[in-house]
Design brief:
This protein is α/β, with parallel strands linked by helices and about 350 residues long. It has a single domain, classed as Glycoside hydrolase, family 3, N-terminal domain (TIM Barrel, Alpha-Beta Barrel), CATH 3.20.20.300. The chain contains 11 helices and 12 strands. An 8-stranded parallel β-sheet has the order 11-9-7-6-3-2-1-12. The chain has a two-stranded antiparallel ribbon with strand order 4-5. Helix 1 runs parallel beside helix 9. The protein is globular. The N and C termini lie far apart (about 45 Å). This is beta-N-acetylhexosaminidase. Its EC number is 3.2.1.52. It catalyses: Hydrolysis of terminal non-reducing N-acetyl-D-hexosamine residues in N-acetyl-beta-D-hexosaminides.
Length: about 350
Amino acid sequence: MQPTFLGLAGLALTAEERALFQSANPAGYILFKRNIDTPEQVRALTASLTDLAGRALPILIDQEGGRVARLRPPHWPEYPTGEAFDRLYEVAPITAIEAARLNARSLAAMLRDLGITVDCLPLLDVRDPQGHDIIGDRAFGAEPMKVAALGRATLDGLREGGVCGVVKHIPGHGRATADSHLELPIVTASREELERDLEPFRTLHWAPMAMTAHVTYTALDPNRCATLSPIVIDLIRTDIGFTGLLMSDDLGMHALGHPSAGGYPPGSNALEDFGARALASLAAGCDIALHCSGDFAEMRAICEAVPEITEAAQTRLTAAMDLPAADTTPAAQWAEARDELLAFA
C-alpha cells in the first residue's frame, strides 16, 4: 500500500486510472464535484473503488457546509457554515454544541449512504480579523475554547454516524493573510502568539486524522512551510501531542510550488515535480500525501516516487478507520433536530 490519498478525473474510473490504482494500491481516495452527479452514480463509484482495493477504504470528501460542499442540491441539501454554530454559541453554548453534533450526524448519514467514510471536517482554525477569507465563515469562531468545543462535537457526531473526521489545518491557518491554494502564506506571529492557534488542536490531540497547513510560520521554521517542515511536524506530534494519522493538504496547491516553501532536495523542480512534493511531505513526517486534482500525469509521478506506507502510518490509518456501524436514521431527521436548535441564534 502506498501512503497516498488520490483524486480521480470524472464520474467513473477510467481504464488507465484503474490500472494505475491497482498497481500502486493507494491508501485511499478523495472525491470532488467533478466526481459527483447523482446518488446512484456516487454509490457505484465508491463501490468500484472499494472493489478495486479489496479492503475497507478511506474515501474522503470536503463536505463542510456553505461554500465548501461537493454534494449540493438538488440531490443533497445545503448545510450551515461553521459561523452558524459560532453565532448560536454566543447565545447558548450547550445548545450550539448539540447543534454541531446533530449537524455532523446528519452529514455522516448522508455520506455513509454514498459509501464515503471520511469527511475533511472540522476546521480548528481560529478566525483572525486580519486573516484571509479563505477561512472566514468556515471557522467556528475567534476563541480557541469555543472552536475546540464545537470541533469536538463535530468529531463526535461524525463518528457516531460511522464517518471519520479530519481536523484541519494543523497547526492553524487562521492568521494566514493569503490563500494557500494560490500562494504561500507567511505568518510572522511570535511563538507566544501562536499558542492561540495551537490550543484547539492541542485540546483535540486525540482526533483520528489531521490535515496540515501549507503555511510558513517564521517563529517555528522560517525556511519551510509546515507541510514540509520536520520541525513543525515534530511540534505537532510532541507539543500539540497529536497521535492520529497526519495527511498533507493538497499537493497541487500553489503554496508548495513557491520557491520559499523549502523542504526539497537540491535540483528538484517543485513547480513541476509532484513526486518531489510527495516525497518532501513524507520525509517531513506526514503519514499520507494528499493529491486532489485527478491529473493523471501528476498521480503517476507521485505513485512512481513514493515508498510503501510505514508501519506506524498503517497502524494510525487502521485505528482511524475503526468506525462503528452506521445506524439507519435518515440524514434529514438529524438535520431537522439541528435546525430547531439553530433557530435560537
